[in-house]
Design a protein that fits this description.
- This protein is mainly alpha-helical and 55 residues long.
- The chain has a domain at 21-55.
- 75% of the residues lie in helices and 0% in strands.
- It contains two helices and no strands.
- The chain crosses the membrane at residues 12-32.
- This is CNNM domain-containing protein.
- Keywords: Membrane, Transmembrane, Transmembrane helix.
């Protein structure tokens, strides 16, 4: 592999990792910021309720 293609591959890998990191940070923020009453409301509507919401 030439030096330029190796650098482009490394840059692409970093871009993909940054994207996935942003996705997981957004998912964590959404789970942390949701109100407990909203979780209970959603659990009451679904059949069966999600197991992660019964904390």
């Amino acid at each position: 592999m030439t030096g330029l293609s190796s650098e482009l591959l490394s840059l692409a890998a970093v871009a993909v990792l940054v994207f996935f990191n942003g996705f997981f940070v957004a998912a964590e923020f959404a789970l942390v910021s949701v109100r407990r009453t909203r979780i209970d409301e959603l659990a009451a509507q679904e059949s069966p309720p999600p197991k992660w919401s019964s904390g």
